[in-house]
# Entry
Amino acid sequence: MYKWVICSTLAASLCSAAVATEPALPMGLNADEPALPSGLDLGEELALPKDPGNAIDEGFNQGNLAEQGFALEGFIEIRSGAWIDSHHYQERRPLNEARLQLELEKEFSTFTFTAVADLIHDDVTDDQDVALDKGEGWLDLRTANAVFSPTQFMDVRLGRQILTWGTGDLLFINDLFPKDWNAFLIGRDVEYLKAPSDAIKLSLFHQIANLDLVYTPRFDADRYIDGSRASYFNSTLGRIAGTDAVTKVDRPNDWLHDDEFALRLYKNIGAYELALYGYNGFWKSPGGFDPATGRALFPELAVYGASIRGSLASGIANAEWGYYDSRDDPSGRNPMINNSEQRLILGYEQELATNLTLGVQYYLKRMEDYARYRHTLPTGAYPAARSRQEYTVRLTWLTMNQNLLWSLFSFYSPSDDDGYLRAKLHYKYDDHLSLEIGGNLFWGNNTQTFLGQFQNNDNAYTALRYGF
# Structure
């Protein structure tokens, strides 16, 4: 039903905004501490300029841009990683790249235009062709949108944008916007976990409640683990696979037909924020398999949820729930398509001492129609557990006048007996230069569990960034 609400609201807002003469979309736009590497080893091709500040000034002339009302900022980064153990499923190291990010903003009389683009030299892959929907190639367009307000109670953001909502910390239920799980696992900055969407977002404000509506005219999938950058469990082969068996998919790809709708209705009541969510689209990572073609599928999906977040005792508590309605398998009788699920997050965060913060979460995913799923499962197939429980712990400590950040984030599933540890040390040398070291460590007794399948992907990385 909310599909028609969003369509009518979009039509009304765009008509009322006609006088704003917003620009068309830019051309080309089409989502459950180990040893460090020996060195960056990037070679002369990836070396930083002798004076990065001057290099940027000479290339883009920030002074002249400012006079014309443009704001330009960004960073240059070199980031390199290595597998901790010998990797039998990947031909090369996990990470070895140089990145230049440029963010340009210009305010016009009726709208503001923002563009964020990353220019990348990725030494891990030989294919430098640009694929914006997959985040591949020498260009990653993070943002390219126009923002305007056709009325005092409405904001519109039109174009490529990073979207997020929900209450989880690195756990997502009602945030059905694309994620880059490869970037997350191989050591890129955590900001790259969020992948961009090509969408229209309306924000409506009222004293009773606020409403966010997002329409994506063509499905934006997760940048999921497919074997090209990290190994995974291939259920068809019954083993861990990597570049020798990259997942092939049939992806919904038709504009205006294979579209997505998402909404959030939220309101602050005292010290608490309450929200209701809705989504209609597809499973963001492959959630089905077609035996006839041997390809993974993105079945249709609808999600309904709610959340609450606010103060509790000396900290901040949150709870979030969602029901995943698997539209292509409502009865749970097709073992080749994900069953419907219920998901829950309970979280709490508190400052234990000055500059020392602890965050804990409990996550539950429970399959619906489990008996039917087990009854129709092919002989010899590995059955998924009905419920998966997971605990997370985040420790963050700021030292040296808050210039040195110690971060530890751990996942542990008692139901699957597997886990994942993310650790990093980030040092801010000055307002421009920062250095980071970190690692990703996985473990599990079974290669078929969610985190256990990644146990061959243990890696460590280093990074050097200059911001301007």
